Amino acid sequence: MQFPTDAAELDRLIREHPERLAELAEYTPSWLGDQLRSAARDSHRAASHLPGEHVHAEPPRWLRLAALAALLTFAEGTATTCRCRPRIDRPQPIIAAAWMPGTVACRRHAIEVLTEGVPDDADTRCDACGVVPPGGLHTGQVVLGPMILFYAACAECRTWTDSEREGTR
Ligand SMILES: [Zn+2]
Ligand SMILES: [Zn+2]
């Protein structure tokens, strides 16, 4: 079995066949697995000091897909990166943002890279539905492996138990 290269496919695999994902993980060289785990621990620690919401419950589907897509692009080596050119086989904590798909940065260059070229009104728009909510946005981050993904979402899209709306459970 090939590792899925599509975020929706990977999301389905994680939710429906976690045992097959564990089989795939066995092909990861152990040194890389160790470094990835250590980078993941660093990211969790760093995220706990950041302002905004910390998502511990299962994130809504759009946020899971945004995080998986960012991690897949990074793993494939096709992501736009900061000048340090972080790579999955040299694990370190990396930062991504739901408003800038396909871009990852190291912690030092995250602000520079993830805010560059963003339109002025973008920081008032929900990353999921694009609406500018009158009550403002909820900002926060989710951690997936070595990656911290930032998001800004309207109240409607930041619900963590929206299984009814998605019908995916
Ligand atoms: Zn960097
Ligand atoms: Zn929204």
TrEMBL record:
Q: Out of the domains of life, which is the source?
A: Bacteria
State what protein this is by name. Answer: Uncharacterized protein
